[in-house]
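Incident log entry.

Two folding requests arrived from the same account within the same minute. Monitoring flagged them as a possible duplicate submission, but the sequences differ. Recording both here for audit purposes.

Request one:
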Amino acid sequence: MEANLMISAFKKKILIVDDEQEVRDSIRRCLMASGAYIIEEAINGSDAIEALKTYAPELIIIDVKMPVKGGYETCMHIKSDLNMKNIKIVGISGVSGGIGGAFMEVLGVDAYFEKPLDINKFRERIAKLLQDQK
């Protein structure tokens, strides 16, 4: 039991924010395969902000377009909060054409991917962002 607690203390925490359960499940499976992460989920930006009151992730993966509170508004909230502004953020979107990426770049996200995700590149980028955070 103690060994499991010690191991989980070294795992990086990630919050996945997407209104589509299938997308959250896919990202979770992709990242959990490494055994290096503790993952929580939220279905929209409002739920993410609420989760951040008790869960302190090193990285947030967030969809750009969601009901209730979307990725843009949520990123602005996070980046304007002194307690959260250093959390790494990866934006994802099903909208192609680079528009979402341009907006996310202005908001200061650390990476952006269009759906469907290139799983290998996505996994590598997540690992690199968290490695750089030491």
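Request two (distinct sequence, not a duplicate):
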Amino acid sequence: MENYNVFAGAFVDRFGERRKDSDWLAGALNDPNACYIPVWGDQCLVGGDPLQAVLLNQQQLDQEIDHLDLIFLGLFRDRPAFAFAMDAQTDPPYRELGEFHDLRYLGTVLAPDEANLAAHARALVLWHASQVFCGICGSSARPSASGNSRVCVNADCGREIFPRVDPAIIVLVSDGERCLLGRQRSWPEGRYSTIAGFVEPGESLEDSVRREVYEETNVRVGSVRYHSSQPWPFPSSLMLGFVAEATSTDIVLNDHELEDAQWFTRKQLRSGFPKLPYRISISRRLVDHWIDIGDPD
């Protein structure tokens, strides 16, 4: 089985062709096996020991289905799955079933398919909250395609708006024996991570890698190879992971985005300093991959 990054994996059959099929969706809503994922603010509900995602059935909902703005996620474990938003200004609901937690924490404790489902639900709920109005004419926009898009209500506009995804590169740069890591001032003391940044208009991913590394560290990069990707719904990033070969090694913090950047050997990284990125992140996977391919054992 493929070793997915946390939050990734094709665990939900998204059934995109059914999103505008009202008859099919009505049947899915009335399916006794349908499940519902509440998102309270930006947190998801978990319960049990060990912790599992709480998938509500229709009887457990504290409102009638007709009163909820449901978002169809797809089929999860052969069950129609829907997400819905809950007002974070109210007390957390469903306390008898579990507790709401931040997705970063849930990524460390949930099974891979449940982490993927929670990330999917959270991303769409937060996107809807940020797209109440049409960006073209300023009119209201209503949910469409069972919550997978929004449509401007202005008949003269009628623009369909799709969920936002922000591509960002993240790269492990190596000179063969060392890798390049940097840290931001706001991070915990001693923590370093791989170089990352958003892709800009008119850029290829490889161009973005080379630009970001040079802008932040003054290091030039030659060969760039794709590694893997990770959805990162905080709120809407897609992390595109690469490994790259450095063609220069002198570090200058050009844009002052980083507080520090250094070259580290595999021995240093195994020693406990610097502190490495959290295990749920693609950054940590890139670092671990680089350590492993150079380990004679």
